[in-house]
Amino acid sequence: MVNASLTTPQVTVRKSSERGQANHGWLRSNHTFSFANYYDPKYQEFRHLLVINEDRIQGGSGFGTHPHRDMEIISYVIEGGLEHKDSMGNGSVIRPGDVQIMSAGTGVTHSEYNHSQQDWGHFLQIWILPNQKGLNPGYQQEYFSPESKHNQLRLLVSPDGEQGSVVIHQDAKLFASVLDPEIKLTYEFAPERYGWIQMIRGKLSVNGTVLATGDGAAIAHTQTLNLQAQESSEFLLFDLA
Predict the structure, then answer these.
(1) What b/e sequence results for 43-72 when a residue is b if at least 16 CB atoms lie within 10 Å of its CB, and e otherwise?
(2) Measured distance CA(9)–CA(238) in Å, rounded
(3) DSSP 3-state assignment of 217?
(4) pLDDT tens digits for 128-161?
């Protein structure tokens, strides 16, 4: 796990180039945390955040039907469309702006394919451990407009669905933002909370530490987060117990 045991404020950078990599031809993936055949004892999880995979899927390809259980799985599409089908009867195409969460609970099977036959798709797959095992499986999908994320933090995921966010079975929140150059934002953590920032594109200063495209950062023992875009930037912010 990422070291969060010290009591001094920490912004611990996970460089994009240092992530695990997998190239299966049809799938190119970068793993922030240990996943499948990639293992790094320093990066197994952060709090309840278990997986952040940045996946690129070739046109006409995808993940065939496979099972999950006792996991909250979030998909955030960056480019293209992701075609989803599952054993609960859901079928949809997830596009940029959409946020999908699948609560695997007691067990679910699903498939994910690139909706395009020609173009590569690009998305983040995020796994968070639920607050209890054996939940009933569930599915949600909501669209969040570019305007709702422009120069502000937009809540996408929360335990109680506030502000129209999708619901997660964990004490966790997920925000997204798209900042113009030089725009500043501030975020206040409650006591004993932790954060993770995942860069999608651009360059962002986080309490003076600069993150670039694909970088991540663990935030510990920090109350105030000062964010400033050094160029047009898109990122996710996790608020974790």
Answers:
(1) bebbbbbbbbbbbbbbbebbbeeeebebbb
(2) 17
(3) strand
(4) 999 999 999 999 999 999 999 999 999 999 999 9
| Integer Cα distance of 82 and 57 in angstroms | 9
Task: Tell me the C-alpha to C-alpha distance, in Å, between residue 46 and each of 14, 50, 85, 102, 128.
Answer: 12, 7, 29, 20, 10
User: What pTM was estimated for this model as a whole?
Assistant: 0.94
79 half-sphere exposure, CB direction, 13 A CA radius: 12
φ, ψ of residue 16 to 5 degrees: the values are: -55, -45
Lay out the sheet containing 108-114: strands in order across: 62-68, 108-114, 82-86, 91-94
Report the alpha-carbon distance of residue 217 to residue 195 in Å, rounded: 8
Instruction: Show the domains of the chain with their CATH numbers.
Output: 10-240 (2.60.120.10)
Distances (CA, A) of 212 to 56, 69, 128, 156: 19, 33, 24, 22
The owner of tokens 């049809």 is: 26
Burial class from Cβ neighbours inside 10 Å (0-12, 13-18, 19+) for residue 223 reads exposed
Using 50, 70 and 90 to split pLDDT, how confident is the model at 33? very high
Instruction: Please report, as a single letter, which amino acid is at residue 162.
Output: E
